[in-house]
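Input set for joint prediction.
Command: fold jointly, output tokens.
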Amino acid sequence: MVSREVRDKLTQITLRRNIIFPSADIYPPMGGIFDLGPVGKGVRDKIVRIWKKLFIERNGYFEVDTSLILPEIAVKASGHIDHFSDPVTTCKSCGAKFRADQLLEENKIETAGTTIEDINRLLHHSDIKCPNCGNKGFTEVAFFNLMFKTNIGPVEGTPGYLRPETAQGIFMAFPRMFKSYGKLPMAMGQVGRSFRNEISPRQGVVRLREFNQMELEYFFDPNDQSFPRFRDMAGKKVAVLTYEEQEKSKVQSKAEQRRNEAKPVVLTCQELLDKKIAPNEITAYFIGLTFEFYEACGIPFESMRFRQLSPSERAHYSGGTFDLEVQTSFGWLETVSLAYRTDYDLKSHETASGSNITVVTPDGRRIIPHVVEPSFGLDRLLWAVLEHSYRGKDEAHDWEWLNLPTALSPYDVAVFPLMKKDGLAEKAQDISSLLRNKGFTVIYDESGSIGKRYARADEIGMKWAVTVDYDTLKDETVTLRDRNTAKQTRIKINEISSIVSKF
RNA sequence: GCGGCGGUAGUCUAGCCUGGUUAGGACGCGAGCCUUCCAAGCUCAUAACCCGGGUUCGAAUCCCGGCCGCCGCACCA
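tokens >
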């Protein structure tokens, strides 16, 4: 586990360097909403770039960008009106808040399919006592929906909602996309923002009201759950915490503790299939690909595991769900959900819209495709990446620094003149624009001493720093400093671009 | 939402208990001098009492409410 101290130190850096900071904070603060400064945005963009490479481009999948605003009928169909709002009631004696349906269920009163009026009646005609203070008497049950509601059109226009996940846009675009490109299996992904009006956001960027997702929907014929070229992934090693393993740990207390004490097993993707842990090649493939992605983002193998969810934990329609959890200062943190959603979503939209969403297979069957969905929480991943990259002082650094993978460096290269005078600054600026014109992102810094500038660059995780000194003026060479070792090598100016882009 | 604790420049913090300060310091940032490679030094500058109300001649300080944060509980389809 990453220590609490690391979280505090990192939080100071992210504020001091404006990597992540509270939104609109010239006004009274809002919880659960943050801005990214240039460095945070730079690192996050690079995480997205790697994701796209692996989850979209590698297998020729489609990337789309669907709307943030959804009509009410769509969120009704997806189940977010009914399942995404909690019936909340308050104890009149002690003020504790409860979910009314859970109170009833705990007292063996069936609530499935009941309306809010039913729940109210059942609750107020029962002898249920407050689990907190033991007294009877609850307030009127009210729904609290986690979606942001708005109006489409003028004041009293059609009700609309900010999307609570990016997935629904993909499902609704599926029929149209399939008609022009369609052949199963087919996959579409998108990177975008989603909104959940959390009751009490906590823990920095871990629970946000406005957050970023990277989701891929993989559509396939349920009669063929193989994955094309699965063999490419078959040997990939992953860590998995099976449901059985979680059950075996006999710690009686909280489910969370039970999970934490259970040991993940390291298996290849092929073994996931052989041992029947993964339901199909598709799931096994994406488990492997997710590990590859996280390792590329600098998360150590030992600090992550796919946890198989128990039947009671996963959504009712799910054919199997695995969460990727990463060790952070908050404990094991869920950052990816890999869900087998069956045909639930497409079927719901077909029913609600009346559109025909079936597709015809090559052998003439008319089916609704099934879906496997790897869904990534980008903000949580960004935070986990930062925590794992944090380094304190060491032999090569008399300051804190971020050991980000080269591919996640917020800018490609830093350029410093050894000093401002004698034309060094001008030469360094020339080199900066040369590199910028070649498409590199460059930070140029001439203030303070050279050591201070190295420290500043290290603190935001810059991998490379080029320094212009007096030899540069004589022979067109510069020194290239590697962040991790602080070692410098002298290279020609025209070699910079090949070395820096090599990674 | 409940309970406990907290909120002072960009960051860290002193002051609060025991009301009266030009609200102090450090780091950072900016300008300048100096400086031939890892947060050197000097000068100057920038910048803060979360919001609202109350008590008082006077509130960063005491009281109440709100907002936000941390910890615990609850919640997290």
